[in-house]
Amino acid sequence: MSSKEDNVKKLKEKLFLKRENGGKTISKEELDKSFSFAEGYKDFLNKSKTEKESVRYALKCAIENGFEEVDKNKKYKPGDKVYKINRDRNIVLAVIGKNGTKNGVNLAVAHVDAPRLDLKPNPLMEQHDLGILKTHYYGGIKKYQWTTIPLAIHGRIVKRDGSFVDITLGESEDEPCFCVTDLLPHLAREQMSKKMSEAIMGEDLNILVGSLPLEGKDGSDMVKLNILKLLNEKYGIVESDFISSDLEIVPAMKAQDLGFDRSMIGGYAHDDRSCAYPALRAILDCKNPEKTTLTMLTDKEETGSDGNTGSQSKFLEYFISDLSELDGVSVRDVLTHTKCLSADVNAAYDPTYPSSFEAANSSYINRGVVVTKYTGSGGKYGTSDATAEFTGEICNLLSDKNVIWQSSELGKVDIGGGGTIAKYVANMNADVIDIGVPVLSMHSPFEVISKIDLYMTFKAISVFFGNM
Ligand code: MN
Ligand code: MN
Hints:
Blueprint: H1 3-15, H2 22-25, H3 28-47, H4 51-64, E1 68-69, E2 81-86, E3 90-95, E4 106-111, E5 116-127, E6 130-138, E7 151-158, E8 164-169, E9 179-180, H5 189-192, H6 196-199, E10 207-210, H7 222-235, E11 245-251, E12 256-258, E13 264-267, H8 270-285, E14 293-298, H9 315-327, H10 331-336, E15 339-343, E16 346-347, E17 369-372, E18 376-377, H11 388-400, E19 405-407, E20 417-418, H12 422-426, E21 431-436, E22 438-439, E23 447-450, H13 451-465
Bound molecules: manganese (II) ion (2 copies).
């Protein structure tokens, strides 16, 4: 190489933004760690298909790791570990810092709800000798993707006596599963000529749940009666109990390694479990931080974060307020100096659909944790745009700690977009930036992520917490 070429190479090395497959630069040791971290993650995915199951999983881990339910009347010392649960659908875990909440807290937030089909309040119908459950889909889905795949029912039914029963049915091979039927191609000429968004409509997402009439009896609705009899025997419920239920229909598939090289994981609800799990693991690892450090797992992100279990509720603020009162600090000051990683996924560049992405500002599988300075759509509408200063602070931290990371926005400017919970934390006057895992086929029943990106998201949150 001539010295001139050498200089050009050096100058490029010095000045250009590096954008490459993390598989080229990651150490053997960290690649091994990525693969073993993925094993724990798959276990979490398979055991936590709903927000309640995720919170339950997190609670079990918290208790095993010495976290105790927070007590407002107790005095905490650095290193103490506390948690609080909101309606079984949110959990916040905290490790008390050496300086407590005095200089603000470090916070990671992620959501544990995912797109799915919810049952309607009065869902059970019999139509031409088939039992079906009517649904109202939850979150942004491409409806056709939810037909003809095995589905499971998860959720809670509150009965007339006030007790409740938690249901999981369709996950193991010895249990029945469910599905949404679709029209055979032979008869689908009209359906196939429709727009994709209209080929399967919301009212077509009916779950097939039975076909046998109640034994030996004549009359109408005998298939429905048979199903209700089975449900009554198994769970003690009657038809009106569906009204007081949160029943969620989710893909029955298990998370699985993907690719000849096993570098990726296919599964349901990587959005946002692939960030929630790293955030959970990072707080479990957190020991004696400088500032009080928190992980919050929240609900209802996919429908706008509204309601008392969404991140627009006061739950997190109240929790931080309780901790700051114990420290004798005003919650306003704590929130103002709070730093937050809003851990949520971004869309990975899909070479099959290049026209929807702007290649220079997309995230890519294996290029590490994605830093998303702003979300929103169409002129940055509805965004939380992290300041240059906070963005710089986080990017420098990631680089200094050898976290493989990339920067991205979500798709082409005028093509769509989306938001995260970043803005709701930012509205409390905290510094917030989105970081997370790039996902292929986001919001589908079988999303894809890479093990390197998953591990680097864990590492990013860990270095932010001061664990590494
Ligand atoms: Mn998300
Ligand atoms: Mn989402």
